[in-house]
Amino acid sequence: MDHFPTGRASFDPPAGTAEHVWRQVVDLMRDERERIGGRDVSAPVDVRELRAAIGAYDFDRPVAPAEAVDGVAELLRATTVHTTHPRYFGLFNPTPTLMGVVGETLAAAFNPQLAAWSHAPAAAEIEAHLVRFLGERLGYPRDAAAGSFTSGGAEANLTAVLLALTRTWPEYGEKGLRALPGRPVLYASAESHLAWLKIAHATGIGRESVRLVPTGPGLRMEAGRLAELIAADRARGDLPFLVVATAGTTGAGVVDPLHDLAGLCADHGLRLHVDAAYGGAAALSDRLRPALDGIERADSITVDAHKWLSVPMGAGALLTTDAEGLAEAFRVTTSYMPDEIRGAVDPYTSSQQWSRRFMGLKLFLSLAVAGRAGYAEQLERDADLADLLRGRLAATGWEIVNDTPFPVVCFADPGDGTWDRHDALARAVVGSGRAWISPVRLDGRAALRACVISHRTTAADVEELVDAVNKART
Ligand SMILES: Cc1ncc(COP(=O)(O)O)c(C=O)c1O
After folding, report:
1. Which residue of 14, 145, 320, 418 sits 20 to 30 Å from the alpha carbon of 434, by its own alpha carbon?
2. Residue 229 phi, psi (nearest 5)
3. Cα(12) to centroid of ligand 1, in Å?
4. pLDDT means per 10 residues in the chain (474 residues)?
């Protein structure tokens, strides 16, 4: 291994030498794929040991690439919660598609600069094509969807708030919140993803401006309760401007009543954003798409490709039919950026980020190869496996406590409904290394949560999870 260059020569070693590194990485990925199912999904981490191992890398003493790659791979293998494991029934973190990994690699290697269209025309047009495709599947008119890829759902949701503020109060962009005649208020369900609080903090509307609307039966936002809150806020002089519906809540995968909320927004002159970071993927399946009915009435929609669309981390998207609104929210001109090309949008002038990576490629390649039908097949398979899981859990004495067409299964011990009990059960399952699940609180009620999110999961993995939770219970 001594022939591997270090120092500046390692930036771009001769072809044969670079080849060794590529081959090592390919072998490593093959090995991971073959062995992952036989490993524990996660293992306890000794933080001190981990920090010592990382601290041993002294950048004054460079190491050969093979050593660095092996060393880091070993650290990742030993300490990561393996979201690529067939029995990771966890948060919305997928096993990435092969083409997603390829897309990520090509994006890094070509490194197109996606700030200016003229620097990366193919990349910009590929992303625009994806935005139109997703928009159309979600129900926006053909070719009407605009938007941008984002680092994830939180950034897409931030973009939605900036767009809503800009469109509701044109003076917001120049003069800021102080030009508004009162306090802007937005509404999301108590089961929504709490990035809304961070977004309220960052946009300056303030955390107190987020109303977490109580959920009703089925853990869905109650339109009646929402109407009462809006009336009370208006009476107080506050300025309601945005309702956020969630299509696939983080805890229970439920979909808020989209038509009811869209109707209410129309009646009250409010904007509607749908956070479909997780559930938006269902738009690719004709069987699952009805669960999203009404989403097409939203002013903007968040969809995360790095959740149920199974591409590697770092790919969300904000979709809207309001391209002009985005252009206004992110308006800027500089002397140093390349001139705009006629008929093309420079991504940095209509999205939050400036220099950015080609996030859409991993989704583009995955879709190009699987096809929409391939995606639909996988999404429906996940839903079927979740049905199997629900049935097996119910048959062995667990109570299923959520209702969703999506593969998120929340279940509780009818004998002991405490948080401590469910927390201990989740820890026992995770500690066994056989599966990864989490405890969750749904409208105050403790439960366990298992989401079928890996395309590697099989019926046998579901059976093993059931066995693991039942052993934990005894
Ligand atoms: C419904 C929902 N919205 C938004 C987010 C935030 O997305 P990200 O983590 O990609 O920023 C999540 C994350 O799980 C989510 O479940």
Report:
1. 418
2. -65, -40
3. 37
4. 77 90 96 96 97 96 93 97 98 98 98 95 97 98 96 98 98 96 97 96 98 96 97 98 98 98 98 98 98 98 98 98 97 80 87 96 98 98 98 98 98 97 98 98 97 98 98 94
In a domain, 125, yes or no: yes
CATH number for position 292: 3.40.640.10
Measured in angstroms, how far is the CA atom of residue 135 from the centroid of ligand 1? 19
pLDDT for res 341: 75
- Half-sphere exposure (CA, 13 Å, Cβ side) for 275? 30
* Residue whose CB lies within 8 A of the most ligand 1 atoms, among 220, 256, 278, for a mutation test: 278
306 SS3 class: coil
In the reported structure, the alpha carbon of residue 304 is separated from the centroid of ligand 1 by a whole-number distance in angstroms of: 8
Q: What value, to the nearest 5°, has the Cα angle with vertex 407 and ends 402 and 413?
A: 40
Which numbered atom of ligand 1 lies nearest the CA of 92? 14
Atom number of ligand 1 nearest to Cα 153: 7
Q: Within a domain: residue 5? A: no
Decide if 188 is inside a domain.
Answer: yes
| Residue bearing the CA closest to ligand 1, atom 5 | 153
Which ligand 1 atom is at minimum distance from the Cα of 306?
10
Rg of the Cα trace of the chain? 24
- Check: CB of residue 186 under 8 Å from CB of residue 221: no
Domains in the chain, number: 1
Give which of 291, 302, 237, 230 is closest to 264, Cα–Cα. 230
pTM: 0.97
- 92 located within any domain: no
- Specify the pLDDT at position 1: 47
Contact 247, 280 (CB under 8 A): yes
Q: How far is the CA of 82 from the centre of ligand 1 (A)?
A: 19
CB 211 within 8 A of CB 233: yes
How far is ligand 1, taken at its centre, from the CA of residue 396, in Å? 32
